[in-house]
Amino acid sequence: MNLIEVKNLRKDYATHKAVDDISFVIPRGSIFGLLGPNGAGKTTLLRMITGIFYPDHGQILFNDRPFDPERDIQSIGYMPEERGLYKKMKVGEQTLYLAQLKGMREKEAKEKIKYWFDKLDINTWYNKKVEELSKGMQQKVQFISTIIHNPSLLILDEPFSGLDPINANLIKQEIFDLSKSGTTIIFSTHRMEQVEEICDRIILVNKGKKILDGEVKQIKHDFKQDLFRIGVGTMPNFAQMATWHFSIIKQEDHAYTVKLSEGSTTNDILMHFIKHDIPITYFQEILPSINEVFINKVQEMEQPLN
């Protein structure tokens, strides 16, 4: 079941196409990565999904119905990269105000504020003005303000900006917990290692077009290059390593990175080492990182046609 279905979405500006015929689905309870270089169309996509912009063409389905901002906006929590906290307001007052804007009653909102302030250990900030807080502290307040009304769709744009490693891990665990409880999450960032660690699925856009879409594990598998790392107990001599089954890409201390030749299998690699009495300490396939896939696909699109 999908919470979001985007069908042939398009948004044109005077000088360019910000979003050009993009379609994808976001399964319920998934963590969905929205990736792309600067100016790719990510922000425009997010603003259409949240009803800030209307598409020129195409359709967005939310809960299997055409997206209606007046009906569905209360089911969305959106934390944009550019923060929207009022610097002169006190933290507690502001969080309560934002919760009530999302339709929460005052009593319920105060109970939720206490719960989250306790959980993220920020009770001492309640009566401080936002401008007195560090960027990381403001980020935690913004995160609470975004999730306090239990949205079914949570959109996080660079949510770890300004956070130290300890607080980044704290927020990351909350993201995992929210996903496990059924919240669907759109996660937008330039940090590819975070995408690989957090996301179930991704879409990669560039120049307004979709250039990649799918499960993270499957994408890594689809872009593999038949590379393997082999650890050895003793370093063999050159004659022992010579074979047509693979080529040596890199030699390290007690390890080799090899590329499997066309027509050969991993068993051929292993049997070659066994045949020459070379003790194997480990054997692992090297899959590309999402960062490598990202760079390759964007560069591929940038190359001029012959």
UniProtKB/TrEMBL annotation:
Family: Belongs to the ABC transporter superfamily.
All residue ranges annotated as the ABC transporter domain in the record: 4-232
Record carries keyword Heme: no
Protein keywords: ATP-binding, Nodulation, Nucleotide-binding, Transport
KW ATP-binding (keyword) present: yes
Protein name: ATP-binding cassette domain-containing protein
Any one GO molecular-function label of the UniProt entry: ATP hydrolysis activity
Species of provenance: Chitinophaga oryziterrae
